[in-house]
Amino acid sequence: MTGPGIFSDIESPLTEERPQTDSHHGITRVDEFSWLRAQNWQDVFRDPAQLDPAIRSHLEAENAYQSALMADTVELQKRLFQEMKGRIKEDDSSVPLKDGPFAYGSSFKKGGEQPRFFRTPRNGGAEEIILDGDAEAEGKAYFRIGSVDHSSDHKRLIWAFDDKGSEFYTLNVRDLANGKELADVVPDTGGAGVWNATDDGFFYTRLDQNHRPSKILFHKLGTDHAVDRLVYEETDPGFFMNVGGARRNDWIFIGINDHETSEYRLLKASEPLAEPKLVEPRSPGLQYDLEEGGDIFFILTNADGAKDFKIMTAPADDPRRVNWKELVPHEPGRLILSILGFKDHLVRLERKDGLPRIVIRDRATGEEHLISFAEEAFSLGLGGSYEYDTDTIRFSYSSMTTPSQLFDYNMRTRERVLLKTQEVPSGHDPEDYVTRRLMAPSHDGELVPISLIHHRDTPLDGSAPCLLYGYGSYGITIPAGINTNCLSLVDRGFVYALAHIRGGKDKGYAWYDDGKRQKKTNTFLDFIAAAHHLVAERYTSHDRIIAQGGSAGGMLMGAIANMAPEAFGGIIAEVPFVDVLTTMLDDTLPLTPPEWPEWGNPIASEEDYKTIAAYSPYDNVGARAYPPILAVAGLTDPRVTYWEPAKWVARLRKLKKDRNPVLFKINMDAGHAGASGRFSRLEEIAYTYAFALKVAGKAGA
Question: Active-site residue 385, yes or no?
Answer without folding.
Answer: no
